[in-house]
Design a protein that fits this description.
With 495 residues, the chain is α/β, with parallel strands linked by helices. Among the domains are: 198 residues, NagB/RpiA/CoA transferase-like (Rossmann fold); 59 residues, no CATH class. The chain is built from 24 helices and twelve strands. It is globular.
Length: 495
């Protein structure tokens, strides 16, 4: 059975285990620093990067404001071009649709283009339960699949593996999935890539059904776009007889001219390339060219709920470039699996709670999986203010109350620790609202400073374990002012 993220622990517990793994931390540090340095150099080549970023945010915001209109236009144009559009309210419905479509072909295996959306829905596990085997064809996704593992990065799903580990996986597991690894395989990248190429080629030539996602959908023409670096996507999108694409509704752009902006931003932000080596575009079906049957499954799965959130909807601008992961100090140490979702890092910390709701401990913990340093916002090519959304979601977790999840109004109860934080804030508010009480509390604090512990007890223990408590001065500012100025300001209670 394919592994899923279901039932994973909250971020603090999962991150604690990851931080203790020295090999994982070294793999992450080496990979993320390399990617972000190359990205910075690629971005610096464009004098109008800031303007492109602003334009992309504006295009996305306009599309999201009128998403209903553009989705209907997209459906109309895909249908006119010979494709079939299916609407899926949630992951289960999307998986049922894809499973039925594959069964209707009579086939029992599919090849897959790398797709975050099908990771989100858990499609591979659903197909396996139906007796259908899905083969990942992206090199990193192949590594993850052979290792019965889970992706840990948007762009490089096997970033947590080093070359020696990949060699062992290929040598030990590749034969169970098809053509075995060559004898004498080393951990040289060229040899590993060649082993994967030989293993996958027989699947490309045999497969009758392919499953993909899409980076963009153009409402104006019904065109779908996939960008990639290896060519496996091109093989899956052109050779099989049936193509099924599962795409989130937010991937829509209004017109062809909008692609100019995103096709400059995405490759530089993700792979640090001026242009993706393979950019595949298709519109419906064409006799004698490519798949003879095309199905588009439009996935909501919480996106409409996020769209209804005025502050949080900017998260739906995301083009899955992974730039935010590569600069995040928390991701670099904790890794992607700690986020308990196909969407790790800063974008996952805001996207997952919006798609799933904040009713469980995992989703409640994710908005706090950040130092709020702001590096993610600085590198985001579509200007998502991730720190702003994190604070917005933290407020939702602390305050609780009503929220919309899958179109249903539910009550989100604050976590126990968040409730204690709220109680502490209310107590501080009572003191700060009464100057006389504040003055007495300050004097009590500095007169007992010799008795203060170095670490807080109870719920504050975890906070003070990583921080020094500030030293208490010998007197309060009010008393110092009254003593040095002698104008009675310390006694009046209004200074």
């Amino acid at each position: 059975m394919s592994r899923t993220y279901v039932g994973m622990p909250a971020f603090p517990r999962a991150a604690a285990r990851a931080v203790d793994d020295a090999v994982l931390r070294a793999n992450l540090r080496r990979a993320t620093h390399t990617i972000r340095d190359r990205r910075a150099a690629a971005v610096a080549e464009l004098a109008d990067w800031a303007q492109l970023r602003t334009a992309a945010a504006a295009i996305k915001d306009r599309t999201l404001r009128h998403l209903d209109h553009y989705l209907l236009r997209l459906e109309e144009n895909v249908t006119r071009a010979g494709g079939t559009v299916h609407w899926a309210a949630d992951a289960d419905e999307a998986n049922r649709i894809v499973t039925r479509l594959v069964r209707d072909t009579g086939e029992r295996e599919v090849v897959k283009v790398k797709s975050m959306t099908t990771q989100e829905t858990g499609l591979n596990a659903a197909l396996e339960e139906a007796g259908i085997r899905a083969y990942e064809t992206d090199l990193a996704e192949l590594v993850v699949q052979l290792g019965d593992d889970l992706p840990s990065h948007l762009l490089v799903p096997a970033i947590h593996r080093n070359r020696a580990e990949i060699r062992e996986l290929f040598r030990d597991r590749m034969g169970a999935w098809g053509r075995p690894a060559p004898e004498g395989l080393t951990d040289r990248p060229a040899e590993l890539a060649e082993a994967a190429r030989l293993h996958l080629r027989e699947k490309f030539l045999r497969a009758k059904v392919a499953v993909s996602g899409a980076n963009f959908m153009v409402a104006e023409t019904g065109t779908l776009v996939v960008v990639e670096s290896e060519g496996n996507g091109r093989m899956c999108l052109t050779l099989p007889e049936t193509l099924i694409s599962v795409v989130g509704i937010e991937k829509t752009v209004p017109a062809w001219r909008d692609l100019e902006v995103f096709l400059q931003l995405l490759p530089r932000s993700s792979t640090a390339e001026r242009m993706n080596p393979y950019t595949t575009m298709w519109t419906g079906t064409t006799d004698g060219d490519g798949p003879s049957a095309f199905h588009l499954v439009l996935l909501d799965n919480g996106r409409s709920d996020a769209l209804a959130d005025v502050t949080g909807r900017q998260t739906l601008r995301c083009i899955r470039c992974s730039a935010c992961l590569n600069v995040c100090p928390v991701y670099e140490r904790a890794g992607g699996h700690a986020y308990g979702s196909p969407y790790p890092g800063p974008i996952g910390a805001v996207l997952t709670p919006q798609l799933r709701g904040t009713a469980s401990p995992l989703e409640q913990s994710l908005p706090f999986a950040s130092s709020l340093c702001g590096a993610c916002y600085e590198v985001c090519p579509v200007a998502i203010d991730i720190p702003e959304v994190l604070l917005h979601l933290r407020e939702r977790v602390v305050e609780g109350g009503e929220a919309t999840v899958r179109g249903v109004r539910t009550v989100v109860r604050p976590a126990r620790r968040r409730a204690l934080e709220g109680a502490a804030a209310r107590a501080a508010g009572l003191v700060l609202d009464h100057p006389a009480a504040l003055r007495r509390a300050q004097r009590l604090l500095y007169r007992t400073r010799g008795l203060h512990p170095r670490r807080l007890p109870g719920p504050g223990r975890a906070w003070s374990a990583a921080r020094d408590l500030p030293p208490v001065p010998e007197e309060s500012f009010r008393d110092w002012w009254a003593r040095t100025r002698g104008d009675g300001a310390g006694r009046g209670g209004t200074a």
